[in-house]
Amino acid sequence: MTHHSYRTIKKPSQGLFKDRGSKFLSFSWPVSAEDDINEKLGFLRRKFHDASHHCYAWRLGVEEQSFRANDDGEPSSTAGKPILGQIQKFELTNILVVVVRYFGGTLLGTGGLINAYREAAADALSKAEIVTRTVDQILDIRFPYSSLNMVMKVLNQEMASQVEQDFGDDCRIRVRVPLTKSGIMADRLNRIENVSVQVIN
């Protein structure tokens, strides 16, 4: 099944949960690649270097989604899995949720940990602005300068968003278009003489 849209968060959000002296600071970020995730994790580990644990879960993609959950030293499946469960409950993707724990001196037990990480993640996500975004494709369009006006007419009519352009003797434009429109737009452009269209992603 092809998905034409997905739910994610518009901007970072924060949450908090406390239990028997332990503090669980939660952070959610919109992300688009594992490089983004590693950068955010590195930032939090530096900022909260004195914390007991930095547990997290992330989810990327809209088709066969890739995801990961990490307990960072907590008992197996007591931290990362409950965080991931909240991401799934809110039906979100392209997102990272990190929960930073400061140990309060009292052991919470398996059930207590699962509840704490779940509630901390839920608090951050409940405060986030959730948005629905379209799944887009990049079209690479190449054409002679003489076809510029006809190409731009199609792009304007379809309200394509330009990513980059190069107007020389041979022109090239890259545009971002919703997946639902890319086939129609490519077909229209290919009908113009000497125009070639390639899907980048």
Summarize the structure.
The protein has about 200 residues and is α+β, with helices and mostly antiparallel strands. Helix content is about 30%, strand content about 35%. The protein is built from five helices and eleven strands, in the order βββαββαβαββαββαβ.
Structure commentary:
The protein has 201 residues and is of the alpha+beta class. The protein has helices at residues 34-47, 80-89, 109-126, 148-157, 179-190, and strands at residues 5-9, 13-19, 22-30, 53-60, 66-70, 95-102, 130-134, 136-144, 161-166, 170-178, 196-199. Helix 2 (80-89) runs parallel beside helix 3. The model has no long low-confidence stretch (mean pLDDT 93).
* Helix content, binned percent: 25-40%
Give the count of helical stretches: 5
Anisotropy-based shape: elongated
Number of strands: 11
Unreliable spans:
none
